[in-house]
Design brief:
5-stranded mixed β-sheet, 11 helices, binds adenosine-5'-triphosphate, alpha+beta, binds magnesium ion
Length: about 375
């Protein structure tokens, strides 16, 4: 066997038999941003996830030096320097990575390593991969909130059965007593009736969690639902708030249950309005966008599901304390006087039933909830 034939076999073995023409598709299939830079930091290659990450197309990115995309003094530049100097692979975890052009800070893990040198390519090159913690945390929080809502489902069924029935007996008896009581005692029987009504309402709300029936799904234009909830808010609990919309009008419809999705929007927008009660220039920004490329493992599905439809609701309040964030989807977690702490727990259940995901991506300058939906024909029914 000749030397060239030997080399060909070696290359084929190294490639595991994969045709070279498939390499770009393989790199684009990686859900995490991956880019290759030269020794001077010039960007030489980006996969599709990188375009989404920096919200910039490949032709523009390929004309940039990595230093132009980040802040002066960014930990990424120090990491690149370290890899170049020590010629080792470096991984850094949970880095606050600012993208100044987008005014956003993302929490990422970064993996950087030098590529093997190649006779056809001049100079040394480095691969940099970003792993967004938001995404990892999102999957974790989906699983946690799914478990939390399941336990509420069981509890709500028990409560409805064991409390609501005797409660209606107590209310009936109090009403009878009230009919013949003097005015002092009447105020007490009224109190009993009011309190039993309040407990019944609370149980009704909790029963929404245990409703295992499959809701009707239909094709939904989410913008119409947002406008409906905005109107409700502007005429009631959100009079003090200015709404700003950034809609992508070309967005396709999604598959969902209209009433449930209205409930989701209502709970999120109501929370935002409540957080803005004493805030001057109170503002809620609602954004819809199409972001191809993001695939996640979602409840009810074995395979990764593409979730390209993004809806975000952002306010300019104080945001949620980072220590509190992991618990916000749990039932009865509230810091409001008179709050029940059920709003976000219900949101998490409905979102999971729609095979969608929700994530909190706010900071001190305001709360921001981001929901990612699958498209119309990929959405599925609730687990029951
Ligand atoms: N936009 C927001 N800004 C600041 N904090 C928020 C925001 N949304 C939610 N929170 C926090 O999350 C907690 C849980 O919200 P959730 O809607 O589940 O309950 P709640 O609003 O307290 O009560 P309710 O059951 O009446 O909705 C809130 O008490 C609040 O502390
Ligand atoms: Mg609420």
């Amino acid at each position: 066997m000749s030397k060239t034939e030997n080399k060909k076999i070696l290359v084929a073995n190294q490639n595991m038999g994969l045709d070279e023409s498939l390499y770009p598709a393989v790199l684009n299939a990686i859900a995490h941003p991956l880019l290759i830079i030269s020794e001077t930091g010039q960007i030489k290659y980006v996969n599709s996830a990188t375009e989404n990450f920096f919200e910039m197309g490949a032709p523009i990115l390929l004309r940039q030096n990595i230093a132009n995309l980040v802040l002066f003094g960014s930990p990424l530049l120090a990491l690149i320097k370290q890899v170049n100097q020590k010629q080792i692979a470096v991984n850094e975890y949970e880095i606050q990575f600012e993208i100044p052009r987008l005014h956003v800070t993302k929490i990422v893990d970064i993996q950087a390593r030098l590529l093997e040198s190649h006779s056809d390519v001049e100079g040394r090159h480095m691969s940099i991969m970003f792993i967004e913690r938001g995404m990892a945390n999102m999957i974790e929080s989906q699983i946690l909130s799914r478990n939390a809502t399941k336990s509420i489902s069981n509890m709500a069924e028990i409560l409805a059965h064991e409390i609501k029935n005797p409660l209606s007996g107590i209310r009936g008896a109090a009403q009878l007593l009230g009919a013949t009581a003097n005015s002092d005692d009447k105020s007490l029987t009224t109190l009993i009736c009011d309190e039993t009504d309040r407990i019944c309402n609370l149980i009704d709300q909790m029963e929404q969690f245990s409703d295992g029936r499959l809701p009707e799904y239909e094709s939904i234009n989410i913008h119409l639902l947002i406008d409906h909830v905005k109107k409700l808010a502007s005429n009631g609990f959100g009079k003090h708030v200015k709404f700003v919309e950034h809609y992508d009008p070309s967005l396709p419809q999604i598959s969902g249950n209209k009433d449930q999705l209205i409930q989701v929007l209502l709970n999120l927008i109501k929370n935002a309005c409540e957080a803005l009660e004493d805030v001057p220039n109170a503002r809620i920004k609602i954004t819809t966008a199409y972001k191809a490329g993001l695939k996640l493992k979602v409840p009810n599905r074995d395979k990764l599901l593409s979730l390209p439809f993004e809806l975000s609701i952002e306010d300019n309040g104080d945001g949620i304390d980072s220590a509190f964030v992991p618990h916000i989807y749990d039932a009865f977690v509230t810091n409001k006087k008179g709050g029940k702490g059920l709003g976000l727990a219900l949101v998490a259940k409905i979102i999971a039933d729609h095979s969608a995901v929700i994530d909190y991506v706010g900071d001190k300058s305001g709360a921001k909830f981001r929901i990612l939906f699958p498209l119309l024909n990929t959405s599925i029914k609730a687990e029951g």
